[in-house]
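subagent[fold] <- orchestrator: predict structure for attached chain, return tokens only, no commentary.
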Amino acid sequence: MSKTAALRLGTRRSKLAMAQSGQVADAVSRMTGRPVELVEITTYGDTSREHLAQIGGTGVFVAALREAVHRGEVDLAVHSLKDLPTTQPDELALAAVPGREDPRDVIVARDALKLTDLPRGARIGTGSPRRMAQLNAYARGHGLDIETIPIRGNVDTRIGYVRGGELDAVVLAAAGLNRLGRIDEVTDFLSVDTVLPAPGQGALAIECAADNAELIALLGELDDPFTRVAVTAERSLLAALEAGCSAPVGALADLLADGQIVKEMRLRGVVGTTDGARMVQLSTTGPVPETDDQAVTLGRELATEMLAQGAAGLMGERAQ
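subagent[fold] -> orchestrator:
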């Protein structure tokens, strides 16, 4: 690999994908002293009009990028980590998981309203069964009357439903709006006690060919060890529930610190029916995992407890 040749970074074409890939490209370039060029790749998920759950969930965004790396058309690819299927293909290395952005979900509502201020019968748009399940459960528990409406589209499209008066609010990820420089449009940050994020939400994944040891070593400098063990635990929970990335599963591993010293990791998981009528929500706390295997074990153990409380029955066909 020439020390001066440009590295080709594969990215989806959406504004958000281009923004986060551009940030990674800048970081890689600073670290390696080599130029990085973005290569736009269209995925089936970008062109299909079908609901994501029907075309295989967010994994459809990942497949085309992975193919491009595998075929050598690009040197590396950047994904939203929550979109990655939980099994890692042998021919690709997850070379880096950079430090995580804000993992929370947020609301963009009309008239700068917060979730609890929305009028009776408020229509809230989201394409995520996970968000629907938890919002509907929260509404049931707090006497709110809301209707969750399935939507698709990029950030502009989704916020446009609110601006155009078709919906009262939409739910988005804080991380995406931060990366787009649009966080000031948020009208309410949803506490993770109200809505647990998707496993891996707010984190990016940088992949390259598994046999490119030199590039793996370079990209490894961007890796954040705490973010990696946290998302590994979350994704292990998802995998052990045998759920795909479009299943109604929320998970978050956070680090519990005493002053500046990180003491423990807490992993929380939730699964529920999309109407919010039945939920299984559990958490576990233990030493911060020092290896991927320890993080995987943490996720599996919590999943086992959730399955014992009936989690599989709440996920529909995907749990079979």
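orchestrator: received. Logging for downstream: The chain has nine helices and 13 strands. Residues 51-56 have pLDDT under 50 and may be disordered.
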